[in-house]
Amino acid sequence: MLLYGISPFVLSVNHVFALIFLACLLTVVKLLIVRRKGVKTMERFPGPPAHWLFGHVKEFRQDGHDLEKIVKWMELYQFAFPLWFGPSLAVLNIHHPSYVKTILTTTEPKDDYAYKFFIPWLGDGLLVSTGQKWFRHRRLLTPGFHYDVLKPYVKLISDSTKVMLDKWEVHSRSEESFELFKHVSLMTLDSIMKCAFSCNSNCQTDSGTNPYIQAVFDLCHLVNLRFRVFPYHSKAIFHLSPHGYRFRKAASIAHNHTAEVIRKRKEVLKMEEEQGIVKNRRYLDFLDILLSARDEHQQGLSDEDIRAEVDTFMFEGHDTTASGISWIFYNLACNPEHQEKCRQEIQQALDGKATLEWEDLNKIPYTTMCIKESLRLHPPVPGISRKLTKPLTFFDGRTVPEGCTIGVSIYGIHMNSTVWENPYKFDPLRFLPENVANRSPHAFVPFSAGPRNCIGQNFAMNEMKVAVALTLKRYYLIKDPDHTPKMIPQVVLRSLNGIHIKIKPVEND
């Protein structure tokens, strides 16, 4: 039937197009309002010119030069400058200790815009949670990082490191270069499984690519990609895209891995409880503490919360540490004179022993300074961000309003030439006590700082010390001039073309 000569089908099509047009119009209006607000927020902070639609996204090509761009802009804008991701998302990028202190001494939450992309993978764990939930979880998890808990881990980390070094024998005989990160990543996963979850994974000796490590690599890449590609900020568009499919597949692998770890640990604890041997265990691991944690109301963590914290610690406890250790090895290979000083110090501390013990960790101060200097040059997490819940005023009087996103460029702080003389030079003496005392504590923040600092930083430092000590005891690390790594920030600091070195055995007298 026709109505005034017009088909109902034509009417319905016109209605659909009208609704689509209206939705697009509303979206554009919303973007314009948000953009106007962002421009007003950033008007007191000059910065590099931005494209009206893409912002600065096209400036970051993931080609190994992105961090150089940040340093170049730092030199033009002393304390901070805005970065635009798409037409409406503005982030105030800060890179000076005085500015960083202002934000990191608060309990302001992580940026809910960027960090929300982690939630389908890591859940609402300590990395992304806010408010009372974050405070409660932080308090419940803190006992898991007491030195009494960390102490037995030294032997377990040593065992994992030795497995890696045994595998390196073939490279020491061939004198050919090899890529570090994949070896170190397996070692740190092996360590975290043993230490935090009392699980012997055998991941270092299994043949083939470890699916969990590959999944974490893919997830880091896809989270980074989603943030940089403005249409992917839409949950629906990302979900329907090929990248969204890859993300869900990788997240499923990671979640299955975590679920299996929790399942096995629950079975062991149940068996121990039934046999009355809980109190005879040598130590409680991280998962034990998660499963037994109770607040003042005797309420524990839900199964969902436990999985989120395990996912978070599994990622942060192996991937970021793998980045740190790999870059430390590379920097020591590039600086053989400092490497040799470390080796002599380590040999003296070991005094003929085959491995490092808890008491030896404080006997290698020069090695510790070299580790810190490498973390300055190559911070495992090159940047973090916060979302303001109230206005914030910096030391120079400039103020940003509630709702503003603050990006803390950890790499930028560490390479700030107004703070660090000759910042590109590897100089561990920067961390002599007298030099540290004369420098802002917020000039060196590889583990962040303040109330929301990295809860596992002591675990990570201990693992780095053990790995470096046992490696230098056994091998000389040699730079490969044909493979210069290109830094690429993808949640953690990686190399676009890998991190390659050569090694040769240390001849023991």
UniProtKB/TrEMBL annotation:
<dbReference type="InterPro" id="IPR050196">
    <property type="entry name" value="Cytochrome_P450_Monoox"/>
</dbReference>
<keyword id="KW-0479">Metal-binding</keyword>
<dbReference type="GO" id="GO:0005506">
    <property type="term" value="F:iron ion binding"/>
</dbReference>
<dbReference type="InterPro" id="IPR017972">
    <property type="entry name" value="Cyt_P450_CS"/>
</dbReference>
<dbReference type="InterPro" id="IPR036396">
    <property type="entry name" value="Cyt_P450_sf"/>
</dbReference>
<keyword id="KW-0472">Membrane</keyword>
<protein>
    <recommendedName>
        <fullName>aromatase</fullName>
        <ecNumber>1.14.14.14</ecNumber>
    </recommendedName>
</protein>
<keyword id="KW-0560">Oxidoreductase</keyword>
<dbReference type="GO" id="GO:0020037">
    <property type="term" value="F:heme binding"/>
</dbReference>
<feature type="binding site" description="axial binding residue">
    <location>
        <position position="454"/>
    </location>
    <ligand>
        <name>heme</name>
    </ligand>
</feature>
<dbReference type="GO" id="GO:0070330">
    <property type="term" value="F:aromatase activity"/>
</dbReference>
<keyword id="KW-0256">Endoplasmic reticulum</keyword>
<comment type="function">
    <text>Catalyzes the formation of aromatic C18 estrogens from C19 androgens.</text>
</comment>
<keyword id="KW-1133">Transmembrane helix</keyword>
<keyword id="KW-0812">Transmembrane</keyword>
<keyword id="KW-0349">Heme</keyword>
<dbReference type="Pfam" id="PF00067">
    <property type="entry name" value="p450"/>
</dbReference>
<feature type="transmembrane region" description="Helical">
    <location>
        <begin position="12"/>
        <end position="34"/>
    </location>
</feature>
<dbReference type="InterPro" id="IPR002401">
    <property type="entry name" value="Cyt_P450_E_grp-I"/>
</dbReference>
<dbReference type="InterPro" id="IPR001128">
    <property type="entry name" value="Cyt_P450"/>
</dbReference>
<comment type="similarity">
    <text>Belongs to the cytochrome P450 family.</text>
</comment>
<keyword id="KW-0503">Monooxygenase</keyword>
<dbReference type="GO" id="GO:0005789">
    <property type="term" value="C:endoplasmic reticulum membrane"/>
</dbReference>
<keyword id="KW-0408">Iron</keyword>
